[in-house]
Amino acid sequence: MFFKIFVITAIFKVVTGQTRLDPLVNADVGLIKGLRGDDGDYSMFLGIPFGKVDEENPFSAATPYPKFDNTFEAFNDTTVCPQVEESQGTITGTPDCLVLNVYVPFSASSSNRLPVLVWIYGGGFMYGDGNRYLYNPSFLMTTMWTNFVKYGDPTPQTSDLIQIQWTPIKNLSQIPYLNIDSELSLGGRPFHRRVTFWDLFYRANYDNLLTAQNPLEI
C-alpha cells in the first residue's frame, strides 16, 4: 500500500481535557484515519486490511481488499489468525486476518519520504499476532538503545522523556537496576529474596566449599 499524502488534521475532541489530533492519509484504497503514538512523535494506523480470504477455500490465493467507500478508522489491532489459545487450549481467531499495522514518524510526508522496514511477527506458523502492546516502535526504547550505542549508558542524563538516571554500581549489597515497564523505575536489588538465599547459603557453606575435594561431597 502506497501512502501518497500524509496530512495531520485536527479533530477536536475532549479527551481527558486535551485536544486530540488524529492523523489522516490519502492512500490508493481511500482515506485512512489513524492514532497518535502516546510515547513518541509518530502516528499508527492499525488493522488495515490488504486482502480477502475465501472462507470456503482459505488456503487459496487471497484477493486484494476493495477500496474503502468511507474513511477507514485504523484504530483496532486485535485481529488474530486462527490458532490455539495456549492457556485455555481453545481455538481462537478468524481466517479474515490479512491486516497490517503501519507506524509513521511525524517527519514523514509526500515530500520527505523515508525508508520502510517490513517486519512479520513470529510464532512458528502456530500462534502469534502483531498487536502494538508487544510490537511497537516505542520512542522510549529507541531513545535508550540510541543512548546505549552512543554513550554506553541508556540514561546518560534526564529529560522530559527519560526522567530517571540509572546510577553505576558502588556497593554490591545495593545493586541498582533499571526496571523497564510502561514506566521506568529504579530498584535497589534485583530478585532480592533469591539473592539473599544464595548469599546465606554461600556464607554457611564457605569452609566446605574450600575444603571439598569432590563437589558431590558438599
From TrEMBL:
Extent of the signal sequence: 1-17
UniProt entry keywords in alphabetical sequence: Glycoprotein, Signal
Pfam family, one: COesterase
Domain Carboxylesterase type B: 22-142
Regions crossing the membrane: none
Matching InterPro entries: AB_hydrolase_fold (IPR029058), CarbesteraseB (IPR002018), Type-B_Carboxylest/Lipase (IPR050309)
Protein name, entry field: Carboxylesterase type B domain-containing protein
